[in-house]
Amino acid sequence: MDKSKRPVLKSKRSFRRRLPPIGSGDRIDYRNMSLISRFISEQGKILSKRVNRLTLKQQRLITIAIKQARILSLLPFLNNEKQFERTESTPRTTGPRTRN
């Protein structure tokens, strides 16, 4: 059999299609905290559309819902506990300073 008569075999990669993160019954709303919290990083940042695997319309609605929840104090603007912890520092002097 010569090369021109060979059947062309395409490599069929089996891949598992990932399910969309938002189902058809899920409502994108600022009160739906279980849904909104999936699209926020550990630091409190909104994850990108590419990371979330959302459509442009869904990403816009998620962003609006997150911002509304932040304004209504349902979500923190920053989720950084280390920012408020005090590290060991030198003690301050409370008395009047004296010159030597």
Automatic annotation (TrEMBL):
Pfam families: Ribosomal_S18
Composition skew (Basic residues), residue ranges: 1-19
Keyword Ribonucleoprotein: yes
Subunit structure: Part of the 30S ribosomal subunit.
Alphabetically ordered keywords of this record: Chloroplast, Plastid, Ribonucleoprotein, Ribosomal protein, RNA-binding, rRNA-binding
Protein name, UniProt field: Small ribosomal subunit protein bS18c
Entry's Gene Ontology cellular component terms: chloroplast; mitochondrial small ribosomal subunit
Subcellular location: Plastid, Chloroplast
UniProt keyword Ribonucleoprotein, yes or no: yes
Cross-referenced PANTHER family: 30S RIBOSOMAL PROTEIN S18 (PTHR13479), SMALL RIBOSOMAL SUBUNIT PROTEIN BS18M (PTHR13479:SF40)
InterPro entries: Ribosomal_bS18, Ribosomal_bS18_CS, Ribosomal_bS18_sf
Entry's family note: Belongs to the bacterial ribosomal protein bS18 family.
GO BP annotation list: translation
One GO MF term: structural constituent of ribosome
Organism: Decaisnea insignis
Residue span of region Disordered: 1-23
Superkingdom in the source lineage: Eukaryota
